[in-house]
Amino acid sequence: VLARGREAYNGSCAVCHGADGSGQGRFGAAMYPPASNLREAAVQKRPDGQIFWIIRNGISFVGMPGFAEQYNDESTWALVAYVRALGRGDAPAGNAVPTPTDEQLAIADPFDSKADRRGAAVFFEQGCYMCHGPRGDAVGNMALRPTKRALATQDSFAKTLREPPVGMPRYSEGHVGSADVADLYSYIQTLYPRA
Fold first, then answer.
1. Dihedral sign, Cα of residue 144, residue 149, residue 155, residue 161
2. What digits encode the pLDDT tens for the residues 15-55?
C-alpha cells in the first residue's frame, strides 16, 4: 500500500508538498498560502476520512486541487497511508526522477505537424514526466519500456490512461482527448530504440 501511495504521491503531490512532505516542493513554497507541511501535527491529527476527503475534493480558495477524477478510492486510501507514513518519518523514499532539459522541452510543440512533437507537449503539460522522467527514464517500475503491456498497442495504452493501475492518475477524455492519446503514444514510441 505504501509503495502505491508513494507512486501516486510522487506524481501528484510532491511538486507542492515536497518529496518529504515538508511543503517545500517546487510550487508549494511559492503558493499563498504555502502548501501544508504534511508531517506537522495539524495535518497528522486529522482523521483518515478527512484526509481522504481533502485528497478527493481539494480545499477551496487555496492551491489544493481535488483528485477524485484521477484516483479511485483504493489509490486515495494508499495516499492517506503514505501521508501517515510521512508524519511518522518511515515513508519509503521516492525514486529520483530526472529533470527535463531545455533541449528535451524544446521538442514539445502542440501545434507541430508531427504527432510525436505534439505528444511531447501533452507529456509535459499533463505532468507525465514527473513520474516517468522526461524521456521515460525514471528508475524502476516508473520507467517506460517497450516491454510494458500497457505500451504494446495504442489501444492498450488508451485503456491504461482511462482505467489505470493503482497509483497512476486517471486521464478522462476531458483531460486527454483521443487525438492527444494518439499523439502521446507517438511520443512515447520515440523514447526507446527500435530493434
1. negative
2. 889 888 999 887 777 788 889 999 999 999 999 999 999 99
